[in-house]
Design a protein that fits this description.
Elements (H helix, E strand, L loop, with lengths): L3 H30 L2 H22 L2 H7 L5 H32 L5 H8 L1 H18 L3 H24 L4 H22 L14 H32 L1 H14 L1 H20 L4 H38 L4 H20 L1 H8 L3 H22 L4 H24 L6 H28 L2 H20 L3 H12 L1
Helix pairs in contact: 1-7, 1-11, 2-4, 2-5, 2-6, 2-9, 2-10, 3-6, 4-5, 4-6, 6-8, 7-8, 9-10, 9-15, 10-13, 11-12, 11-14, 12-13, 12-17, 12-18, 12-19, 13-16, 14-16, 15-16, 17-18
Length: about 475
């Protein structure tokens, strides 16, 4: 039992890390066959599709996990409700495709959105089966399904890009990824849908979901806001560059923070009556995420000015600047992101909605003010805002558990110091070395950077893992 957290989070994280690294490895190939404007069109198309995807689950999967007793009729009712919601979202999305294309004056968006409209329905089909696998602790199997789906998706985009499919190679990747995950989850989950009859009342789940729908919409708006603003004011090419930088910026969230949050949520639901334990679990997650994420982000940010043009071609050189400027903000967001998970586990969904709404509005206003000054200004604002808003973010956690700002900031202290050293060293090296030499230095510097973040606080890390293991 002592290794439960490491096995569950580790399997999910290993799966996503493998896929994230695979994505990085294929980007040098794909980037040479697609133009920044094609990446921009895909980013703008996905911005509206992501809204629908967030709504397709509506948070009901999380609500089912919270239930102590299993009632198949209840789970079956949620399945059919989500299936109907997913189908409706896909239809609405397809109908909005011409409007979206006209809004950005980009005709290719029409068919891109229309085809991508299948994604919400696929996500809805697998939501309940996936929730059952999480509740049963089948995280390693979930990781395997996602790995297979990711590998097939990567193979699809790579082959089609080389064959000249252009932006449609990215579309096909998304369809394959969602389709394989849906099929795998439904096959391996212990949940089996019954006939659509004998529905049970879902009042508690709908209440839980209503708040989560609001959170999902606002959270999506916060993430997609910069993409839409850059696309609307600066055009497809700048949004393509921003989108490429975002692919690297979101790697830690997808590969590490996402899996950790899944496991942390289940852990917090089990200790929700002991507020001290809840606070301890949150601070422990901040510590582990900072140690896992800060060093690689710092090494890449310091090397970006050299590595981006070398790996992706000179066309994408400006994406390196965007990445380096926005990296500190994304690092902070990833390390402290379990706050929303904590509020959700404690059934404080209204407070979570308030927190996400406030943060999204202020961040979007800040980004909108920066857009006229260029995408570099937008990147700077993303980092500055994350740092300035952090005390307020911690304040929300204090409304449900005895979390202190000192504990949260302290959990990131050593990792921050180690990463600052790594960043400075790699930036200096990038001015001296080039090409393969710089790539080799970055690969060598990463384990050293991790060692700097881990070795001074091994006892603290052990206590953090113990808190997450319970």
């Amino acid at each position: 039992m002592a290794k439960t957290f490491l096995v569950n989070a580790g399997s999910l994280s290993a799966s996503r890390t493998l896929l994230a690294l695979s994505q990085v490895l294929v980007l040098p190939v794909v980037a040479r066959f697609l133009t920044p404007s094609e990446f921009g069109d895909m980013a703008i198309a996905m911005s509206i599709v992501i809204f629908a995807q967030m709504l397709s689950d509506a948070g009901m999967g999380r609500s089912l996990i919270r239930q102590t007793a299993y009632d198949h009729a209840e789970w079956n009712s949620v399945f059919w409700l989500l299936t109907a919601i997913g189908a409706a979202l896909s239809i609405v999305l397809a109908a909005l495709a011409p409007v979206w294309a006209a809004l950005f004056d980009r005709p290719p968006l029409l068919w891109l959105v229309a085809v991508l409209a299948t994604l919400p329905f696929l996500n809805a089909l697998s939501a309940v089966a996936g929730a059952q696998m999480e509740k049963d602790g089948q995280f390693p199997r979930l990781a395997l399904i996602r790995t297979v789906a990711g590998v097939l998706g990567i193979a699809t985009v790579l082959i089609l890009a080389v064959l000249g499919a252009g932006v449609w190679s990215l579309v096909a990747q998304q369809i394959v990824l969602a389709g394989v995950q849906t099929i795998g989850t439904m096959l391996y989950s212990s949940f089996r849908a019954g006939a659509p009859r004998n529905f049970t009342p879902l009042g508690d789940h709908i209440r839980f979901a209503s708040d989560n729908v609001g959170v999902s919409l606002i959270f999506s708006a916060q993430r997609q806001g910069p993409v839409l603003l850059v696309g609307a004011f600066l055009g497809a090419v700048p949004v393509g560059l921003f989108s490429m930088a975002q692919r690297f910026l979101t790697l830690p969230r997808n590969a590490v923070a996402g899996p950790v949050s899944q496991v942390v949520y289940v852990r917090m639901t089990k200790v929700q009556r002991d507020l001290k334990d809840v606070a301890e679990v949150y601070v422990a997650s901040c510590l582990l995420l900072a140690v896992a994420v800060f060093p690689p982000m710092a090494v890449l940010a310091g090397s970006a000015g050299n590595l981006f043009p070398f790996l992706l071609s000179d066309t994408w050189g400006q994406a390196a600047v965007i990445f380096a400027l926005a990296a500190p903000g994304m690092m902070i967001e990833v390390a402290t992101g379990s706050a929303g998970v904590m509020l959700q586990a404690m059934d404080r969904t209204r407070l979570r909605l308030w927190m996400v709404s406030e943060r999204a509005i202020l961040r979007t206003v800040a980004v909108a003010a920066a857009v006229p000054f260029g995408i570099e200004a937008v990147s700077i604002v993303i980092s500055v805002f994350s740092l300035v808003y952090l005390p307020r973010y911690v304040w929300f956690t204090q409304q449900v558990a005895p979390v202190t700002q000192r504990a949260v900031f302290g959990s990131m202290g050593i990792a921050t110091a180690a990463s600052a050293v790594s960043w400075a060293v790699m930036y200096y090296c990038a001015q001296v070395f080039g090409g393969w030499q710089m790539l080799g230095l970055a690969c060598s510097a990463l384990p050293l950077s991790w060692a700097l973040a881990i070795l001074p606080q091994i006892p603290t890390l052990r206590r953090a893992v113990a808190a997450l293991n319970g």
